[in-house]
Amino acid sequence: MNSLRKLGTKLSQVAALPFLSFLLAFFISGILIAVSDSRVLKLAGHPWQMIKMAGTVIGNAYLALFQGSIFDINLTHGHSFFQGFYPLSETIVTATPLILTGLSVALAFQSGLFNIGAQGQFVFGAIGASYIGFHYSLPPVLHLLISLAGGALLASIWGGFVGLLKAKTGAHEVIVTIMMNYIAGYFILWILKTKAFLRPGRIDPMAPEVGTNARLPHLAGADLRIHAGIFVALLAALFVWWLLTRTTMGFKFRSVGANASAAKTAGISIAYVTTATMALCGALAGLGGAVHVLGSEYAMTADIAGSFGFDAITVALLGRAKPVGTVFAALLFGALRTGGRTMQSNTETPLDIVLVIQALIVLFIAAPALVRYVFRIKNLKTSASITSKGWNG
Amino acid sequence: MSFELRGITKTFGSLVANDSIDLKVEAGEILAILGENGAGKSTLMNIAYGLLQADSGTILVDGKEISINEPSDALAAGIGMVHQHFMLIPVFTVAENIILGHERTGRAGTLKLEDARAAIKKVSEEFGFDVDPDAIVEELPVGVQQRVEIIKALIYNAKVLILDEPTAVLTPQETDDLLRIMKDLKAKGTAIIFITHKLREVKIAADRISIIRRGKVVGSAQPSASQEELASLMVGREVTLAPDKTAHTIGDVILSVKDIVIKDHTGRDIVSDISFDVCAGEVLAIAGVQGNGQTEVARALINLEDHIVGSMKLDGVEINGFSVHKSLDEGIAFIPESRELDGLISSFSIAENLVLDVHTQAPYAKGISLSPSQIRAEAEKRIIEFDIRTQSVSDPVSSLSGGNKQKVVLARELSRPVKLLIASQPTRGLDVGSIEFVHERILAERDAGRAVLLFSTELDEVMALADRIAVMYRGKILAIVNSDVTRDQLGLLMAGVVSAGAKSA
Ligand SMILES: Nc1ncnc2c1ncn2[C@@H]1O[C@H](COP(=O)(O)OP(=O)(O)O)[C@@H](O)[C@H]1O
Ligand SMILES: [Mg+2]
What we know:
The complex is a heterodimer of chains A (393) and B (505). With 393 residues, chain A is mostly helical. Chain A is built from 15 helices and no strands. Chain B folds into 3 domains: 3-235, Rossmann fold (3-Layer(aba) Sandwich); 249-331 and 420-505, Rossmann fold, CATH 3.40.50; 344-416, no CATH class. Chain B has a 6-stranded mixed beta sheet with strand order 6-7-8-3-9-10, with helices on both faces. Adenosine-5'-diphosphate binds next to β2 and α1 of chain B.
């Protein structure tokens, strides 16, 4: 009972800053939605009516955001009640790869590394999974597992190379990963035009669909796209948590991340930690790419990675480089992204407002003093240190 | 003029840092304030200088109450302060630092530095300081940087000079220079408040001594009081300053270092051709002024330095070229010079810090998985054995005081089987009580038959602990002498003078 209460206070301490940032971001974005709406602006001479109109506009926009990301009663007409959750399914489908890339960046933060390379690692995960998925035909389950593992492995080599380079030559991982993202981006363009990846008789850059045995099964029937990849992502989060808190390897990672000089003095090899971390980061982001291909896309295209690797940085920051935090942050981003589309088509509010919301949330998390000021809170817990270290470490 | 603090009280949350403190200092007088780390000395002085506001109490100059809300008020009232941590901008020149906050500009907004240069020259000559107004501050030795701070105070006509632990960062020679400067200033009528926890200096410099413990003035003493008396007033119990060093038998050679050369990244020799042996059951102290290569030698012995030339044999095994991990595993306990930087991970818990270098071994780990409960259980034992004062072993190590932090490092390093203990500046920045504890533990290791290599810049420490003393100067060992060497002979050796009096051992 006592420990439950302790957990409660700890949770509220840790979650307070993200939650308040979230509120503040929605509040400010609400104002933006109102002042950029033509119907509100038309009433400029009538303050009272204008405020009423603003309220309606903001309410509608956020209602659409909700309907687009969680549940929409309109979708149940003529279908089962279940179909109303189609938006939630879409949210989770978007969040799934984002959880994995987010974990990749978060794990790097824990070791004191800044992994900008999730994008490239994602690409290689997708390439590996896609190739094994369409080129071979293997029994059920086995095919899926090998495709997932193949994608993760390829990406882990890609990521681990960066770690090795840093360990051996001191090349900064930020610069190297940025460059490697370019290479990955062009590599996928090229490989999609090679014989091995072109679909028979076609010349457009799109890989064949992966075999049915290699696909992640749907979780809620064929009408909803939600697939078993979310379990892969949650397992990965559990794995990262276990690794960091319950293994000697994770202890080394955290030691180097928190104070490399003391870790070195205690006999921990920085080179080992750097290489192992980047290889694992590669595997995680690569798993993201694999899950995306095997779960929802099936056929790989050149822009398969979208912005999953870049949003991952924001997601990891928002999740404070913690596995659980990253999962929630990715779900939030998934919801904003899918809901934003509905908001754009149903109301006058553009999709871009979602980007504003995302940016504001991160801004407030990064500058807790602002949140503290607005809400007049003195002791807001801000353990952002690990994610706000300089680049010259 | 006279300067007086009356009934100063200051709380931080529930902590009473200053509890109605009264102090008075007259012109031409040195008042020493003696107190352990955390006693509230800096807090009191920051109040006097306007960096902090007291909850209650008054400040009087020449018997008249004045209000000091910020440092400029203090300066105007003739109060100057040299902080424990210097408040200089490292990349600025001396002159630029001196006019900082009082900049005067010519036409087109250019800085006018001539006045400052002239004033610096004048003060420098008056007190025999050797300070170039156009030198970049970060390129100056620490002792000279401190003089810049003093000059700054004097130029703005300080009649009361507060020196907050000014000797903590100085070498023995620089310390003696400072004490001389203080006496000069006193002769010219400056009132000085001298804060320290070093007893020898107090006895040399002070006219009167006030002792602060846990935020209260607990007594005053004359400089004629013995060091033991002063120490027990400060700590609040009996202390033994010179630990009991029993006669002992020296065993076999444990560490044998031959012709070690260490170069910096530019290829310059930092350490050249150093050789020495340390035997089981003896303390070999490597004395020397900071920056003469001791840091590098200590680090080299566990292979923290790259490209070490020469031979380092631990119990017959050549360890040059081993990884750090393997060097430690061969049986070396290592207490690094900077516990904050190299000894501890401040965001980690006390329990985690206690296993930094053994976290892969039983019982802390089984295979690849860590056993947090075992780590905690062992930590509970350690905090009792080493008297680490904390509420819980899960608290971050950053919540501990300096002395307790060092005890964590000691507890970690001395809880595994080792043949050699390397301790680098093990009592730097610690209070008397903790110093006593660290010294006792070091001697206990020696008496248990381990070889101990002590790197220290503190003469007192070297004299108290060492069986033999090697003095390093400019990357070389100048002499290895027996512990019956005198303080003066040692001081001369540290300054690079090989005198006839010191006989080699
Ligand atoms: N700004 C502060 N906030 C909270 N506690 C403080 C602050 N400054 C000092 N303290 C606490 O007040 C006590 C006295 O500190 P200080 O005056 O620095 O001691 P001293 O200079 O004698 O070593 C210590 O316990 C210290 O932790
Ligand atoms: Mg102090």
